[in-house]
Design brief:
The structure holds 2 protein chains of 2 kinds. Chain A is an alpha/beta fold. Chain A is 59% helix and 7% strand. Chain A contains 18 helices and 6 strands. Classes of the chains: A alpha/beta, B mainly alpha. The interface between A and B is large, with 116 and 85 residues.
């Protein structure tokens, strides 16, 4: 080992340690910022160390790339609205996946030029990380397009879809087999990358918006795994460790999200959940009769004279950007001595923890945000459960209608509160396209309208009540 | 081959460390966790530097190296910046409003 190699290896070890410590500090909101800073510092050390790597012969492409990439990353990260956070995360994730695939393609060029021996020990990681990186890149772009509403958020399905996807997968495996058995041509490798990109697109198309928390975590783990495997191709321990940490984290989150919906990962990926089925609209339209609609004044009075109110936010709050109005309402209630808590369902919104970030943006103290298991026993002793733009996660059908598509999904027990107020734009069924019997519960009153508008009016009315 | 097994050892141990560390993150911080891990897989920038700096494969090699550098830098810089932005919003009771910590109520 030369001195340079020793210094490089030591620096990468420090990076790995800082990443692990950084993630450890992320387990508490008090230390989380320090954790992010540590990880940032670790990244800085790794990049600085790599500058001394003797394999770097030309600086031109490195500098041009950094000068283009850094401002794009920084500016978009600072400018993006908090409500658009899921798609931003998807986009950065896709960039990482794409980079991993490109790095592996670069390594393939080295094999082609004879710089690296063409053994399976180098080729296998190159092929695998190209496949996974491409899937992650293309899949993330589709997830971005769905969340940004550049395309419909509903599942896109057609007959024979699974057959087509299976054929693309078989093509990928065949091409990978050819490359691994020594057919080292740029066109075969390019075909492999193209087929992988296609699978990324086709794989995410049939997945609906409400399942995005699972998809985003899964793609995150894909990129992590792609980076780890790239580490094998480059014999870089720091890439292996960091990529694996991310892969493990993404996998864990994916499983948590799937469990929170009581669905298997297979069902999320291939079930096309939330696609509009014929007949789903029929019963939904017919059953709008039993609901009670209330006025802002009614609801404000009810809230103002309650002892305890639990607010249940959902994706509708994010869409209406109502988080600041919600905080104002909560504050006005607290000023009157009403106890206010927020009930956060694990899959509310479009990414894991989505509601927490939005409410944090609106300055809601994090100790007021309660997880499902903690808050559910409290609904019994609650005067009003105020549901703002949440639907499926409050649907009692998940508890007692065995043939409902969401049967068995853990829900927030809002119907156990004395009164339930549901803020909703219209009687359209939620994402899953399922009736919500909660709306016909005699305890429930509906307040129709834009969530932000309704909540602002409520906040003002509560103050003057 | 020996190197491969050392790497596999590191890989397997990292899986366990990853699960261990991350299973302790509360659901409240899941978005920042995702965003931070997102930034961490930006470590691929190290690989991008090596590919872009190796100057192999003519025009195609340059294009691949440059594109890898751009994407990896977007990933790293954007990932950390967005995580920092999220985390600076998480405040406890008594810290709301002006943003200056006044101690916990």
């Amino acid at each position: 080992m030369t001195t340079t190699q020793i210094v490089l290896t030591a620096a990468y070890l420090v990076t790995a340690i800082l990443f692990i410590l950084g993630l450890k500090f992320l387990s508490s909101p008090k230390t989380a910022r320090r954790g992010n800073l540590l990880a940032m510092f670790g990244m800085l050390i790794a990049v600085a160390a790599t500058c001394f790597d003797t394999h770097i012969l030309s600086w031109r492409d490195i500098l041009i790339g950094a000068v283009i990439g850094a401002p794009i990353g920084f500016v978009s990260a600072r400018l993006v609205k908090m409500t658009a956070m899921p798609q931003m995360v998807a986009l950065f994730n896709g960039a990482g996946g794409g980079a991993a695939a490109l790095v592996s393609s670069g390594e393939f060029l080295k094999v082609l030029s004879g710089q690296t021996p063409a053994s399976w020990v180098t080729l296998l990681p190159i092929v695998l990380s190209t496949i996974i990186g491409c899937i992650s890149f293309a899949g993330s772009l589709i997830a971005f397009a769905k969340l940004q509403e550049l395309m419909t958020g509903r599942p896109i399905t057609y007959t024979g879809q699974q057959v087509v996807n299976a054929l693309v997968l078989i093509a990928i495996l065949a091409l990978a087999g050819l490359v691994l058995t020594g057919h080292l041509t740029p066109s075969l490798f390019g075909g492999l990358a193209a087929a992988s990109l296609l699978l990324g697109v086709l794989g995410v198309l049939p997945i609906g918006g409400a399942d995005m928390p699972v998809v985003i975590s899964l793609l995150n783990s894909f990129t992590g795994v792609a980076v780890a495997i790239t580490g094998f191709a480059l014999s870089s321990t720091v890439l292996i460790i960091s990529g694996t940490l991310v892969g493990a984290s993404g996998t864990l989150l994916t499983m948590l999200m799937a469990t929170a919906m009581n669905r298997s990962l297979t069902n999320v990926l291939f079930g096309a959940f939330g696609s509009v089925k014929a007949g789903a609209a029929g019963p939904a339209a017919a059953s709008g009769a039993g609901v009670r609609s209330a006025s802002v004044e009614d609801v404000a009075t009810l809230l103002a004279y309650s002892r305890k109110v639990i607010i249940v936010p959902g994706y509708g709050m994010a869409v209406a950007q109502a988080q600041h109005a919600v905080r104002e309402l909560a504050q006005n209630l607290e000023k009157r001595g009403v106890e206010v808590a927020f009930a956060i369902h694990p899959v509310a919104g479009r990414m894991p923890g989505h509601m927490n970030v939005l409410l944090a943006e609106a300055n809601v103290p994090y100790d007021q945000l309660k997880e499902m298991d903690e808050i559910n026993p409290q609904f019994e002793h609650t005067d009003v459960a105020l549901v703002i733009g949440a639907n499926d996660v409050t649907n009692p059908a998940a508890r007692n209608v065995p043939n409902s598509p969401i049967y068995g999904m853990p829900i927030l027990d809002v119907d156990k509160a004395q009164h339930v107020i549901v803020l909703k734009r219209s009687m359209n069924p939620g994402f899953a396209g399922i009736d919500n019997p909660l709306y016909e519960n005699p305890k429930t009153m509906m307040l129709f309208g834009d969530a932000k508008d309704s909540v602002s009016k409520l906040a003002a009315a509560v103050q003057s009540a | 081959m020996e190197l491969l097994f050392t790497e596999l050892t590191v890989f397997v141990l990292a899986i366990f460390v990853g699960f261990e560390v991350i299973s302790k993150v509360p659901s409240m911080l899941h978005t920042p966790l995702m965003s931070a891990t997102n930034a961490i897989h930006g470590i691929v920038v190290v690989g991008a530097m090596l590919v872009a700096g190796a100057a192999i494969g003519g025009a195609v090699g340059h294009a691949i190296g440059l594109a890898a550098m751009i994407l990896a830098t977007i990933n790293v810089v954007g990932g950390f910046a967005v995580t920092e932005r999220m985390l600076e919003m998480f405040k406890g009771r008594g810290q709301t409003g002006t943003g200056t910590p006044k101690g916990r109520a």
